[in-house]
Write a sequence for this structure.
């Protein structure tokens, strides 16, 4: 196991470096740098200004020099400077990832809390009305576009909200996007204030997770309940709850653990569409904005960080597999 | 079963929790957050508020700066203010210098000297007086070789600035410049006492250290109170503000302006409809969505929200590459414009709310030629012109001359719905007179970054941003045709006309406004005959505000709608 681990860890180095080269080249190959974009549409910016600014930002240097400069700085923990946000990429990135987690973690927990019980129930009562309802719901959840669902939620809870006419529900009107109310002091009051802004995007995001986790739980459970050891457990005369909880469920969650491990990098990558619709300053939106604005340092930093995260969590998923399932061994 | 019950309980708990913290709904039509506050929604968050730095040039930075700095005349922190009637009035300056009064003088060798007298008693938001040194300092910063400035167009025309006393500035101009009495030095204003140390320590990093958060010292009616990155900016009335006599009051009734940033326009519209937004600025609601919203407000009979389109300065047009073998012939260019029905197009697409343009200058511009030749829809004329130019119909219905089919590629930014609709309408109309047009759109980056500057197009649709003082030097003179010797030149059609060259260079230096108007009129006469670009329409910007919010006056210029925020106020009755 330790040899396997060392091998995998060593493999990661060329993988990340290779990735950084590809990402750098892809971003650099896109025509038009930030200075070109600034000039465009503004007749007051003269040709001399363009040349001066390009030199200032080092955009007039050859590609390989720019790459090695970037790599050298990155190895020293400096991912560069965001031209549009006027901040070091690293601190900007951490802050945005933190914001994304504000949505992603509750959405993830909510999704699991609903998906696992529903998935198990559907598997145990296959082809029951409840199972059909769950199947319908998961298809709905997987196929509905997040931006559309988001807008519908905003419309329902911020513009339409007929339920505010019902006693005790007068307050159930939610803000149509945003991150915080202005003028709320930092600390606990601001976090409490943020909850109302989190509600809708969390629901929208969790629907996506919920739908796919329900499917995974259901199919994995279906497979397990047909296994011989479950039949053995039943024939031993164990109660149904013991059979389900001790023998079936434990084995059914193994693939789910892998899926969860692989979802964690996705959690930190934010959700560009949901974040955009709800005006949430998360990392997904940052990445999209950075690419559109030609803010290469930011785009590069985020993509490479996420790529590294995917690689690490893939490894963790493999390890957790071996730990949870004694049938699997790595040599 | 037990599991299922637990999850329903959890879901119920989450819903109750969200319900419990929700704030009460705002009364319809009233202020979203108290009668001394205006909550504005917009799409983009500025990255910085430094008036001189290149990265702070985005429009929204300017809308917020015009609250914090005095005053906006399409550049921020200037001594002169531009009103919504496009009138220039003295702001921090006691008067606008003029040739007649002698505070604007022509010196030997076409140099000039402009003397500014500043009003006294104005202070920065830390209480220190605003003096001539602050304007001089801003100019020095802007011109510093290590400072990444994008706006030296005016600043570099200046030789030197001196301050004989703290409230007088004497500006020496290297050569004549027509608007030397509207900009002190084209660099805005910076608090010297608060920024000098940081700038001298590291000029290259100055734009990153100053103007990116609280405090950003200004000299305007409001001071920056809170900046929640990614969410909102709040400004509050500055108690030491003195007002601008006859323009902006000393004591604003709106004590607080909150800017909220939501990148999705549908979400902004939801905020407008729900009453969470008191107003939206020029960039918040794109035109097409504005049209839909306007219809909806009318249909629902909502009188509590005013939504209005103001024709602005963004000029949509199609550049015709005059180096193209067909387009080199003036008759072909004229035929192209006769063949299209621009009037019907703006009716169909924009309900006429973005007016057809006939010149390269907007109608509100002082040099606009009211008698300019207006090309109407005349397909017969187009056919006649093409026949005269030697084109005959080929087997496939497309005209040709000397074996070359009259066929063009038509480029614009991919994914822009409005521009794509325009393309389809025009393509069909050109086809009707035998001109083949192939649409080939590109992402904005490739289009603006490479295709246009290297002039790899036949027809290219895009927009220029004009201003009340626009001239034609960079777009129409032959020495501004982009090429290896002139990277960054902006005469993309490659237009060459010696008389236009002479006129466009001369207008910049002509000090007599009446003569300048004559020059513009003549330039437009020649241009409209040569027609190197097809003028399409002037873009309008939608702004919304609650009907109870008084004195909302978009300018239709680069000066943002916040220019008169100290005069805003809440009424009580629709």
């Amino acid at each position: 196991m330790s040899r396997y681990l060392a091998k995998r860890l060593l493999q990661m180095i060329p993988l990340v470096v290779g990735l950084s080269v590809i990402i750098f080249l892809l971003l650099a190959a896109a025509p038009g740098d930030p200075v070109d974009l600034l000039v465009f549409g503004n007749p007051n910016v003269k040709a001399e200004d363009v040349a001066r600014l390009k030199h200032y930002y080092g955009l007039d240097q050859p590609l390989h020099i720019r790459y090695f400069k970037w790599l050298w700085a990155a190895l020293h923990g400096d991912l560069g400077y965001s031209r549009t946000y006027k901040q070091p990429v690293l601190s900007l990135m951490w802050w945005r990832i933190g914001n994304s987690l504000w949505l992603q973690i509750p959405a993830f927990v909510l999704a699991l809390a609903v998906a696992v019980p529903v998935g198990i129930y559907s598997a145990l009562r296959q082809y029951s009305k409840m199972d059909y309802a769950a199947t319908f719901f998961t298809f709905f959840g997987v196929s509905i576009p997040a931006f559309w669902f988001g807008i519908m939620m905003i419309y329902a809870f911020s513009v339409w909200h007929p339920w505010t006419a019902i006693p005790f529900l007068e307050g159930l009107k939610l803000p149509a996007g945003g991150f915080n109310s202005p003028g709320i002091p930092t600390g606990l009051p601001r976090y409490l204030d943020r909850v109302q802004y989190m509600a809708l995007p969390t629901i929208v995001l969790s629907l996506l997770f919920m739908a796919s986790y329900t499917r995974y739980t259901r199919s994995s459970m279906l497979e397990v309940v047909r296994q011989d050891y479950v039949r053995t457990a039943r024939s031993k005369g164990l109660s149904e709850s013991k059979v389900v909880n001790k023998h079936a469920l434990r084995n059914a969650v193994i693939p789910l653990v892998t899926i969860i491990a692989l979802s964690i990098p996705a959690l930190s990558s934010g959700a560009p569409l949901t974040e955009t619709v709800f005006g949430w300053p998360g990392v997904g939106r940052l990445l999209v904005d950075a690419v559109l604005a030609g803010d290469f340092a930011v785009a590069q930093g985020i993509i490479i960080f996420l790529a590294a995260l995917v690689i690490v969590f893939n490894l963790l998923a493999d390890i957790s597999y071996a730990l949870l399932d004694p049938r699997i061994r790595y040599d | 079963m037990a599991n299922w019950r637990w999850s329903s309980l959890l879901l119920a708990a989450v819903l109750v929790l969200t319900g419990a913290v929700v704030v009460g709904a705002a009364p319809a039509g009233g202020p979203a957050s108290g009668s001394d506050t205006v909550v504005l929604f917009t799409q983009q968050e500025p990255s910085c508020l430094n008036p001189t730095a290149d990265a702070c040039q985005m429009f929204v930075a300017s809308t917020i700066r015009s609250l914090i700095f005095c005053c906006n005349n399409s550049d921020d922190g200037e001594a002169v203010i531009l009103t919504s009637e496009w009138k220039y009035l003295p702001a921090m300056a006691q008067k606008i210098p003029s040739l007649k009064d002698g505070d604007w003088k022509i010196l030997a060798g076409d140099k000039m000297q402009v003397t500014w007298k500043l009003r006294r008693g104005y202070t920065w938001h830390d209480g220190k007086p605003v003096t001539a040194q602050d304007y001089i300092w801003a100019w020095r910063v802007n011109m510093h070789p290590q400072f990444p400035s994008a706006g030296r167009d005016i600043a570099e025309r200046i030789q030197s600035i001196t301050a004989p006393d703290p409230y007088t500035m004497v500006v020496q101009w290297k050569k004549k410049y027509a608007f030397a009495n509207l900009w002190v030095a084209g660099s805005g204003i910076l608090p010297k006492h608060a920024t000098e140390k940081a700038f001298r320590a590291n000029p290259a990093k100055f734009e990153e250290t100053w103007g990116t958060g609280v405090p950003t010292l200004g000299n305007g009616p409001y001071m920056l109170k809170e900046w929640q990155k990614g969410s909102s900016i709040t400004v509050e009335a500055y108690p030491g503000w003195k007002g601008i006599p006859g323009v902006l009051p000393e004591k604003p009734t709106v004590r607080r302006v909150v800017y909220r940033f939501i990148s999705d326009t549908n979400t902004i519209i939801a905020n407008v409809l729900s009453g969470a937004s008191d107003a939206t600025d020029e960039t918040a609601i794109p035109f097409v969505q504005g049209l839909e919203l306007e219809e909806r407000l009318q249909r629902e009979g909502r009188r509590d929200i005013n939504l209005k389109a103001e024709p602005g300065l963004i000029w949509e047009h199609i550049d015709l590459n005059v180096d193209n073998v067909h387009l080199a012939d003036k008759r072909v260019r004229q035929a192209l414009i006769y063949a299209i029905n621009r009037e019907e197009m703006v009716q169909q697409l924009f309900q006429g709310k973005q007016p057809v343009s006939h010149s390269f200058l907007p109608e509100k511009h002082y040099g606009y030629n009211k008698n300019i030749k207006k090309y109407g829809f005349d397909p017969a004329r187009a056919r006649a012109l093409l026949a005269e130019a030697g084109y005959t119909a080929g087997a496939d219905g497309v005209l040709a001359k000397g074996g070359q089919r009259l066929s063009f590629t038509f480029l614009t930014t991919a994914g822009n719905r409005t521009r794509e609709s325009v393309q389809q309408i025009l393509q069909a109309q050109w086809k009707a007179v035998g001109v083949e047009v192939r649409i080939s759109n590109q992402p904005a980056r490739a289009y603006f970054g490479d295709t246009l500057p290297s002039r790899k197009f036949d027809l290219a649709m895009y927009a220029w941003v004009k201003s009340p003082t626009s001239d034609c030097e960079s777009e129409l003179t032959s020495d501004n045709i982009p090429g290896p010797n002139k990277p960054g030149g902006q005469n993309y059609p490659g237009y060459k006309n010696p008389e236009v060259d002479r006129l466009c260079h001369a207008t910049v230096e002509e000090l007599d406004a009446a003569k300048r108007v004559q020059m513009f009129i003549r330039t437009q006469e020649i241009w409209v005959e040569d027609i190197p670009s097809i003028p399409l329409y002037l873009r309008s910007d939608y702004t919304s505000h609650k009907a109870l919010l008084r004195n909302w006056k978009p300018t239709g210029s680069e000066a943002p709608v916040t220019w008169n925020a100290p005069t805003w106020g809440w009424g009580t009755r629709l």
About this structure: The first helix of chain B runs from residue 2 to 21. Chain B has 15 helices and 21 strands. Chain B touches chain A through 74 residues (CB under 8 Å).
